[in-house]
Amino acid sequence: MDPRTERCLQLTRRQLLHGGVNAAGAAALSTLLGRANAHGAASESTRRGGLPGVPHHPPTAKRFIYLFMNGGPSQMDLFDYKPEVDKLFNQDL
After folding, report:
1. CA 49 → CA 20, 36, 81, 92, distances in Å?
2. pTM listed for this prediction
């Protein structure tokens, strides 16, 4: 049997999806970076003003709070008013 055909038969669905996701992620990253930065850092001649590594404007944020709550209820469950919930309060479901 042809080695390529044999390898395709051994490939699981999880491995196939993993490879497809990696390819899609690489394509999205290259789109986000744009043509100028797709193959590495910009050269000195293509850099547009300013000092390298220094932002164009001073940052204004004093503090930053990031909350990541894995497994919490969705926003739809938290903020939608549900009148039926009041009727079911303190009852076995």
Report:
1. 39, 16, 52, 67
2. 0.30
Cα separation of 5 and 14, whole Å? Answer: 18
Say what percent of the chain tops pLDDT 90: 0
Rounded Cα gap, residues 64 and 39, in angstroms: 32
Strands (DSSP E) contained in the chain are: none
21-65 per-position pLDDT tens digit: 888 888 888 888 776 555 555 555 444 556 677 777 777 888 888
- Distance set, CA 25 to CA 19, 30, 41 (Å): 10, 9, 20
The 10 Å Cβ neighbour count of residue 30 is 13
